[in-house]
TrEMBL record:
Top EC category: oxidoreductase
Entry EC number(s): 1.3.1.76
Species of the source: Mariniphaga sediminis
UniProt-recorded name of the protein: precorrin-2 dehydrogenase
Gene Ontology molecular-function annotations: ferrochelatase activity; precorrin-2 dehydrogenase activity
Amino acid sequence: MNKNFLPIAIDISNQKILIVGGDHSAWKKLKILQRFDAKVEILAKNICEEIKQSGVTYYEKTYHKKYLNGYLMLYSCTNNEALDRQIVEDCRQAGVLVNIHDKPALCQFVSPAIYRNGNISVAVSSNGEDVYESIRLRDKIKAYLQ
Ligand SMILES: C[C@@]1(CC(=O)O)c2cc3[nH]c(cc4nc(cc5[nH]c(cc(n2)[C@H]1CCC(=O)O)[C@@](C)(CC(=O)O)[C@@H]5CCC(=O)O)C(CC(=O)O)=C4CCC(=O)O)c(CCC(=O)O)c3CC(=O)O
Ligand SMILES: NC(=O)C1=CN([C@@H]2O[C@H](COP(=O)(O)OP(=O)(O)OC[C@H]3O[C@@H](n4cnc5c(N)ncnc54)[C@H](O)[C@@H]3O)[C@@H](O)[C@H]2O)C=CC1
């Protein structure tokens, strides 16, 4: 894959983040983001009960680029490659950072495997090439630090 991801830490206070998709993958992503007190909103045609009852702001609608205004970043968990490609194009135009779940080639940024303890975060990524190695290393570092 011809990509070169820069690891950074980004301030998300008072920034809105959109997850497109409302099923299992979206739920997992939501749980990770909530650990960072992110202001996450969900947009999907169908949203599962777990998400609806979690207290998150959600919109049960079909995706359209007109909904992108005001978001710092977007995670797509639609499980639909044609739609994902459209979302990538729309986000690039709207200036919204975009991640496509499990599709590194389409990602503008990828999510590392994180261990967080207070103000210290350890984030492991593999340039999108080997997520299982990232998770394995994160777990080793976590065990070492605990
Ligand atoms: C490129 C990236 C894009 C992105 O999504 O950002 C990506 C891609 C892919 N993930 C795949 C599979 C799984 N990923 C997980 C879990 C996580 N994946 C995360 C990140 C990333 N995953 C980015 C790269 C990061 C890097 O650079 O290393 C973590 C670390 C962070 C997060 O998601 O926030 C989070 C751990 C959260 C935690 O433990 O804290 C699980 C386990 C699970 O879900 O329980 C499975 C198996 C079950 C399943 O398939 O779902 C596959 C299919 C691989 C295959 O089997 O072939 C691809 C596609 C591919 O590798 O080509
Ligand atoms: N056991 C596990 O660890 C996992 C299991 N799964 C399973 O794999 C399958 C895939 O799960 P997901 O990745 O969550 O995908 P999914 O296909 O289940 O959900 C896609 C989501 O995107 C939404 N969506 C699709 N097109 C849309 C549009 N045009 N506008 C707005 N919203 C739109 C749908 O309404 C839905 O909420 C499911 O069966 C799930 O249960 C998925 C991830 C992990």
